[in-house]
Amino acid sequence: MSTGTVFGVGLGPGDPDLMSVRADRLLRGARHVAFFRKAGRPGQARRIVDGMIPDSAEEFPMEYPVTTEIPLTDPRYNEVLSAFYADCTDHLRGLAEQGADIVVLCEGDPFFYGSFMHLYTRLKHQIPVEVVPAITGMSGAWTATGAPVTWGDDILTVLMGTLDEDTLAARMGDADALVVMKIGRNIDKVRRALRAAGKYEDAYLIEYATMPNQTVQLLSDAEGKVTPYFSIIVVHGQGRRP
Amino acid sequence: MSTGTVFGVGLGPGDPDLMSVRADRLLRGARHVAFFRKAGRPGQARRIVDGMIPDSAEEFPMEYPVTTEIPLTDPRYNEVLSAFYADCTDHLRGLAEQGADIVVLCEGDPFFYGSFMHLYTRLKHQIPVEVVPAITGMSGAWTATGAPVTWGDDILTVLMGTLDEDTLAARMGDADALVVMKIGRNIDKVRRALRAAGKYEDAYLIEYATMPNQTVQLLSDAEGKVTPYFSIIVVHGQGRRP
Questions:
Q1: Topology adopted by domain A138-235
Q2: Of A157, B138, B180, B187, which is the most exposed, with the fewest CB atoms less than 10 Å away?
């Protein structure tokens, strides 16, 4: 019996119609499906593939042992997560060694700020692993704004809202086009940094890009708004255009 | 008769299997297909959809009147291109007003450094225009390297090789993860800037990402190499990883 393959399948921004033809085929033929989720939640990745994966597929939810309960700066954070990823890896490798192909659901693009990379780096020297790239959440977000994000020689900078305020402000100031991800509870800090960089008035807030509940608004029209972690802020570049 | 729609359809990095389900459906049902190309060439976008679009589809090649014959800094460059985009727009609007839907082929993602945006901004207040996002060329490139491009709080910077050397070097120095596009004849300048930023040894050169002739190599192993304009250079971030 030959060893199975772990497929890290990018699901894209959320609309199943925007998945790749390859992802669609792998999902509809899947016999083993693994996905990350917060304990006690259905999981956004799993929800995106509702009605796509066969009823007969064996599902393996991988529940994060911690999300925001331990600060990132606490050494225990990395210890706990590292043990978690090692457990997930053991399970997936066990299945593959029994000959099973496993589809791991990845929101967005697997190699772009995705959790799958923590499995990938542990598995890639042990068993076959393939990565199916996808439309990023930020592509979904800038498309939703109805305006191109980069023109000509614009420099695009992608920042995480988890960075400290000074770093955010400095890098926002340098950027032509700008994407900020991981917003959620970081939104007030991100607002202050955008103001300091002179880009606040031009910033758009996109929630649930490409999904039925998608919203697009100027950030300045969303004062005081509570927004999900996976919201995205976009500032469009203004480069050369004939 | 109702006005038709212009669809700006992102084709992704080149592998038809990585097109979105929506793009695949629009292409296979297309009755009018428009695409940019250099005069006298088949055109890369058109080549990607070989065998996908119906034989009966009416094709409208839009041939750039100029690519590198006039320098970007010459005012005539913008004038010539502006007239060209206006002509293309007139033709597409004429078709749509006769009730036709038109698929415009876009390499990569239409709103990310794409030529389609020049048609989009001219058409969007006149007739219905829809944009189908796609996997970017850079996603195809970093997936081809077999390593995640961004971890944790890494800052991603996307630079065009057409920028001046000092700007390139300064922004490369600030970046955690780095993508450089529009390489081609800019490669020697890009190499010098990467060296000045201390990132030369970590840079990968990806040609024809996701296509049958894909190559991936360390840039330092490709000394003296002539590489296409659409080659991509990737430097991976080294951020937090449990």
A1: 3.30.950
A2: B187
